[in-house]
Amino acid sequence: MATYKNIKGFGIQYLDSDPATSNVGQVWFNSTSKTLKGTTAGGASIGTWASGGALNQGNNSQGGAGTQTAGLVFGGVVSDGTGTARALSESYNGTSWSEGNDLNTARSNPAGFGTQTAAFAVDGSAGPPNQYSVFVESYNGTSWSETTENATGRYGSGGVGTTTAGLIWGGAVSGSSTVNAEQWNGSAWSEKNNLNTGRNGIGGGGVSTLALACGGQPGPGLLVEAFDGTSWSETTEMNTARIAGGYSSTAQSNVLAFGGEPTTANTEIWNGSSWTELNNLATGRSALTGVGNSTTLALAVGGGSNTNPTEEWTAPEFVTKTFTVS
């Protein structure tokens, strides 16, 4: 009969406490608890949401960029029925938010992408409903500056990428949804093939050459399209309809979706072929902002009627298991 030593080439370690770090597949005997233990892979399937630091000013319909420990949100709208846009900008250090220099042009529902110190705010609504902006601003970690405008101003679009390679898609122009998609190469915008279905309040993930466009309206809020660098093609719909939801991703094949309208707390993940439901947000919110470049570490920021809560999504990379006879 094969033994662990025969298979692995070494015997099981006897330790008086669990190791501070371990690798997937590592097995040891804890002599204190008298249990056999090992390390298995974690991942988004066991992720949970927890309270993070609150925004300094409650907000919704913001753009976002960065990571869970170095996040950035900007823009937004005053929740008084006037649709007045905001120029607010706040950064997150993993614990709390700090107010920074404002955008040059106030706007709600801008597309946002990049890092905390190198971000883009693209288009958005510059005033009451349907007054869309064509302004693009870049952030250097301290201040915002205007840069090259894109061809089709819109609000409520999706966006991914960096300040040298970005992509935006969908959104609304004068109240009507657009199918337009544009790519940024670090110096200029160029039009790409259109979405199959125009939607605003759309989002998604990926990179500028391999992106996923998710949800939005009009329609049931379930539609998903994949971009291969040239064209868009419809793929598996989401389980939960969401307009203006939050998203975080590492790639086109790894996208986390959460919140949105109709107001929902549902969270789900895309693995490149199907969507799987995960643990819900503590508080369902519409028009929230998703921040993150990972499906194991993300932020759900603001939303609702200018609320200020932040929730942190965390999924451990490794899990320690205790082996039992059963």
Structural account:
Helix content is 2%, strand content 39%. It has 326 residues and is mostly beta strands. It has 2 domains: 4-41, no CATH class; 44-314, Neuraminidase. A hairpin with an 8-residue loop joins strand 24 and strand 25 (267-270).
Brief descriptors of the model:
single chain; 326 residues; mainly beta; Neuraminidase; 2 domains; four-stranded mixed beta sheet; four-stranded antiparallel beta sheet; 1 helix; 30 strands; 2% helix
Summarize the helices and strands and which ones pair or pack.
Layout: H1 4-8, E1 13-15, E2 27-30, E3 35-41, E4 48-51, E5 63-66, E6 71-74, E7 89-92, E8 97-99, E9 111-115, E10 118-122, E11 136-139, E12 144-147, E13 158-161, E14 166-169, E15 172-173, E16 176-177, E17 181-184, E18 189-192, E19 203-207, E20 210-214, E21 224-227, E22 232-235, E23 246-251, E24 254-258, E25 267-270, E26 275-278, E27 289-291, E28 297-301, E29 310-314, E30 318-323
Parallel strand pairs: 1-2
Antiparallel strand pairs: 2-3, 3-30, 4-29, 5-6, 6-7, 7-8, 9-10, 10-11, 11-12, 13-14, 14-17, 15-16, 17-18, 19-20, 20-21, 21-22, 23-24, 24-25, 25-26, 27-28, 28-29
How many domain units? 2
The N- to C-terminal Cα distance equals 20 Å
How many strand elements? 30
Question: Uncertain spans, ≥5 residues at pLDDT below 50?
Answer: none
Quick one: biggest sheet? 4 strands, mixed
Looking at the structure, the CATH topology of the largest domain is Neuraminidase
Helix percent reads under 10%
Gyration radius (Cα, Å) is 22 Å
**CATH class of the largest domain, anyone?**
Mainly Beta
Cross-sheet strand order for the largest sheet: 1-2-3-30
